[in-house]
What does this fold into?
Amino acid sequence: MTIGVMMWKSWAEVFFVLLLLIGFFISIALPNPWLNYLIIFLAGLLSGRWIYMKKGKQPLFPFFLIIVGFLFGYMLGAYPSGLINTKLIAILFILGGIISYYIHKEGYIKF
It folds into this structure.
């Protein structure tokens, strides 16, 4: 089995690791905690939209895995600034995802 075939069969795990690294490096690159909070809230909004678009069309577990990969990477990069900061990042991400999903579900934003 070639590497390309293996990557195609386990695409969710590949993207999990890729977004874990991207989230880690974005979090390290942002020294200001308020900018961290804004970026993670916007990422939560995007993930809520992504889940809304995929719901009912494709299995959601691979997409949850990818989203959690980004969140874990971001939280690992923000961990040196404190445990409270990491918890706040998780709360803002989840809150952004819920708000975005609700806004799209109710039809306030159409795409």
